[in-house]
Specification:
This protein starts with a helix and ends with a helix. It has one domain. Helix content is about 60%, strand content about 0%. It is elongated. The protein contains 8 helices and 2 strands; from the N terminus they run ααββαααααα. With about 260 residues, the chain is mainly alpha-helical. Strands 1-2 form a two-stranded parallel ribbon.
Length: about 260
């Protein structure tokens, strides 16, 4: 009789323990999501303000990376260090980016399907360019159009507010997963802001410079699993080209020189 009671009590204890563990897991995931939203919101607001307050139709020919991009990388580096203290991936992590390090060598790449190869000095050998379809639609539909029809414009505008943010899909208690979610939130904000602005030739070229500067550093925060970064950055440049009145791209070699000088 006493043995049966002990077994029953043990079963109840295990059941309670499982329920408590499940509850703690839910709370931990909620706290993690809150941290990601908080950090992502801070970075996104800084980026949004820099885009909304700039006159993209009367900007000068780009000679530098905008300072907000450097600030974003600096802040992400600090976030990476914070998260690394609690969560570190099993696989070997990529070295933290150094803003003073060599920027690396690049080749032109359009219609990207995967991340570029890593160079010996830690840089990336990829130049992010608009998709060819974006330039084709810009040319066929007229300057600054997205296809030449009101229906397409309404569709693009609706897309900004109807897209579901897959920020927390497959969220894990790992550094790469956390940083990936923050970067996704940042880049999706970038894309939404771009879709609501109109650009001159030099405005488009400034975005090209900024995007390629970001790409050189963002991959290191996600241990080279940068396919989503490449895709989002390419979409940002493509959207900018479609919103440009005079879509003339900056040459890849010039982009490299500017980014190396920063």
């Amino acid at each position: 009789m006493e043995s049966d009671n002990q077994k029953s009590g043990s079963s109840i204890d295990r059941s309670k323990l499982t329920a408590i563990q499940k509850q703690f897991s839910i709370i931990a995931k909620q706290l993690l999501k809150q941290y990601i939203c908080s950090q992502g919101y801070t970075l996104s607001q800084m980026l949004r303000k820099s885009i909304e307050t700039r006159d993209w139709l009367n900007t000068i020919e780009p000679r530098h990376v905008r300072s907000v991009m450097k600030r974003i990388i600096e802040d992400l580096t600090q976030i990476d260090k914070q998260v690394r203290m609690l969560y570190n991936d099993q696989q070997s992590s990529a070295p933290l980016p150094s803003l003073s390090s060599s920027y690396g060598r690049y080749y032109h790449r359009s219609n990207l399907t995967s991340g570029g190869a890593r160079s010996s000095d830690g840089g990336r050998r990829t130049i992010i360019m608009p998709r060819s379809s974006a330039l084709d639609r810009t040319i066929s539909g007229g300057p600054g159009s997205s296809g030449g029809s009101t229906g397409n414009l309404q569709l693009n505008f609706h897309k900004v507010f109807s897209e579901k943010l897959d920020i927390f899909i497959d969220l894990q208690f790992q550094k790469t997963s956390i940083l990936s979610s923050i970067i996704k939130l940042l880049l999706k904000t970038y894309l939404e802001c771009i879709r609501l602005k109109t650009f001159s030739r030099y405005g488009l070229q400034q975005v090209q410079v900024d995007i390629n500067y970001l790409y050189n550093y963002l991959w290191s925060f996600v241990n080279n699993d940068d396919r989503f970064i490449t895709s989002l950055l390419e979409e940002i440049v493509s959207s900018t080209a479609m919103r440009c009145l005079d879509p003339i791209l900056m040459e890849a070699s010039v982009i490299t020189v500017i980014c190396e000088g920063n």
